[in-house]
Design goal:
Elements: H1 13-24, E1 28-35, E2 41-47, E3 52-57, H2 65-80, E4 98-100, E5 103-109, E6 114-115, H3 121-138, H4 151-164, H5 173-187, E7 197-199, E8 208-211, E9 215-218, E10 225-227, H6 231-234, H7 245-255, H8 269-287, H9 291-296, H10 303-322
Antiparallel strand pairs: 1-2, 2-3, 3-5, 4-5, 6-8, 7-10, 8-9
Helix pairs in contact: 3-7, 4-5, 4-8, 5-10, 8-10
């Protein structure tokens, strides 16, 4: 294998092809199609026998080895329970997680499908069905190396990261600090006595495939987290929670065919939306030196950027206060 790779930025198609050939013990063609990913390096490859694979090299420093194993274990648990997912392949090492030059990677079978479009009441119930099954598996064991998505742990860490790293422009740093203090004091207590289980973490329609004749399939567990079950519901909604009561009722109806659901946890949806806004800001800060990120977010870090983001945070806080 070509191991003359000194950094994550040096990864190239030849390296991906070599990695798959060695790890699976099969011959590959020269086909290498880059797939969209802001964080990882992902390529679609083809074997000489025509099979297609997706290989993912995980960006160093984002997840620990233990956290990546948690992700793989969750997907493998789902596969064993016959929940439609795309599980990582077992490599010649007998493991699903490979490592080259300190960079972790996984190989997945390519599965065709189109992004799921929710067009009917029955579709919302189908979403509830698969989430109920997913969370039944998610509750069966812990994912201790993964983020616990709560205001006073993950969100507080993200706020501190932004403040300590002085990522907020000086013009808005004081306002950001006072606003985030108010946010934490408002939503922190809402998560007390809440169930925390393994969740997909980023469950939106772009991570659900529809396969004709087979149904819907959950993909991309990269943001798997320990969170309240409702985390996997709210990203699917067409509007804020107060305006999505019908859709939530249908999801819960489908969900409870497989697992009990705490209706009171619906009050966490708008706080979770707030937490995602702060998560996104911290994510941006961690990527700011990446050339690809800078080209996609040229306005990042400017006064105008922070004015708009603080306005969005304040608007979301007002919505939360109106509904608690």
């Amino acid at each position: 294998m070509n191991k003359n790779i000194n950094s994550f930025e040096d990864l190239n198609p030849e390296f991906f092809i070599d990695a798959v050939e060695v790890s699976l013990g099969i011959r590959m063609t020269g086909l290498a199609i880059p797939l969209t990913s802001y964080i990882n390096r992902v390529y679609e490859l083809q074997a000489m026998d025509g099979r297609r694979f997706v290989t993912k090299f995980y960006r160093p420093g984002r997840w620990s080895k233990e956290a990546l194993i948690d992700e793989h274990n969750f997907v493998l648990d789902c596969k064993e329970a016959e929940i439609p997912v795309i599980a990582p392949l077992v490599l010649k090492t007998g493991k699903t997680l490979g490592e080259i030059n300190g960079i972790y990677f996984a190989i997945f079978p390519k599965r065709l499908g189109r992004f799921f479009e929710i067009c009917s009441d029955e579709d919302w119930k189908r979403i509830g069905n698969i989430l109920g099954r997913l969370h039944t598996v998610g509750a069966c064991r812990k994912g201790n190396a993964r983020i616990k998505h709560s205001p006073m742990s993950s969100t507080l860490d993200e706020i501190d990261f932004l403040k300590d790293g002085m990522f907020v422009s000086s013009r808005y740093s004081s306002e950001f600090e006072s606003l985030t203090n108010e946010i934490l004091s408002t939503i922190g207590d809402l998560f007390e006595d809440t169930e925390y289980i393994r969740t997909h973490g980023d469950c939106h329609c772009g991570n659900i495939l529809h396969r004709p004749g087979e149904g819907i399939m959950l993909i991309d567990f990269d943001d798997m987290m320990t969170a309240p079950p409702v985390q996997d519901m709210w990203l699917l909604l067409p509007d804020y929670a107060p305006n999505s009561k019908k859709e939530l009722k249908l999801i819960v109806n489908g969900y409870t065919q497989f697992r009990d659901f705490d209706i009171s946890s619906l009050k966490l949806i708008e706080p979770l939306r707030m937490m995602r806004l702060l998560y996104f800001l911290a994510w941006c800060a961690k990527q700011e030196k990446d050339l690809k990120f800078r080209s996609n977010f040229p306005n990042w870090g400017t006064d105008s950027f922070w004015r708009e983001e603080i306005g969005d945070l304040r608007k979301q806080l007002d919505i939360i206060k109106q509904n608690i």
